[in-house]
């Protein structure tokens, strides 16, 4: 799956979607700083295993994360079951009444839209994982 990033937080995958330049790599980097492990930046491989969507590092960019205005950083990678989709969009509702759903490989996964331009975006993404993410 191209144009997405994914970070594993405590063994659960946070799949980050959004338009180019919306901050997917920046959010992934911030989640790494909070103890996450990179699955993939600007692409992941998805596989259905026993009804769960598993995100794997993509072959062509495995272990690399883009740091805008700096360059590429090499980091260890892992695989993880996708527990939540974070959709970065300036149209995100301020106080939604629960999570939406994204369909990945025919499986429903909770999805939360977050406003991308926030100094606490990683905290919001982590809270969304805890509140709405699959266990």
Automatic annotation (TrEMBL):
Transmembrane segments: none
Molecular function per GO: ATP binding; phosphorelay sensor kinase activity
GO biological processes: regulation of carbohydrate metabolic process
All copies of domain HPr kinase/phosphorylase C-terminal, residue ranges: 6-76
InterPro entries xref list: Hpr_kin/Pase_C (IPR011104), P-loop_NTPase (IPR027417)
Pfam families reported for this sequence: Hpr_kinase_C
Protein name as catalogued: HPr kinase/phosphorylase C-terminal domain-containing protein
Species per Swiss-Prot/TrEMBL record: Aurantiacibacter luteus
């Amino acid at each position: 799956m191209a144009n997405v990033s994914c970070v594993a937080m405590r063994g659960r995958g946070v799949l980050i979607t959004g338009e180019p330049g919306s901050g997917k790599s920046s959010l992934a980097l911030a989640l790494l700083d909070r103890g996450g492990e990179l699955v993939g930046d600007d692409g992941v491989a998805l596989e259905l295993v026993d009804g769960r969507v598993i995100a794997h590092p993509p072959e062509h960019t495995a272990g690399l994360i883009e740091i805008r205005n700096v360059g590429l950083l090499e980091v260890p990678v892992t695989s993880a079951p996708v527990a939540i989709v974070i959709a970065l969009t300036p149209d995100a509702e301020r106080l939604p009444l629960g999570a939406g759903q994204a369909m990945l490989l025919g499986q429903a996964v909770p999805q939360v839209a977050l406003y991308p331009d926030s100094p606490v975006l990683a905290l919001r993404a982590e809270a969304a994982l805890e509140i709405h993410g699959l266990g």
